[in-house]
Amino acid sequence: MDDKHREILRRQRYNLRRDLEVMKLLPKLFSVLDLEDEEEIKAEATRRKKVEKLLDILPKKGPEAFDVFVRG
What we know:
- With 72 residues, the protein is mostly helical.
- It is globular, with a radius of gyration of 11 Å.
- 65% of the residues lie in helices and 0% in strands.
């Protein structure tokens, strides 16, 4: 993931934590996340923690991750 995309995620973290519906988005991220990533996200107790986990994992998932996330 490009530094500029990491910065966008960092700046929007509060809004994403507040508004993102991770469980609806996960199926659309199949080309970016592996099964282990998905299980880690789903294992979190709250929606907010699921978002945090996704935002921690996503920047490590390669150059296409941000675009797939945004299109999702």
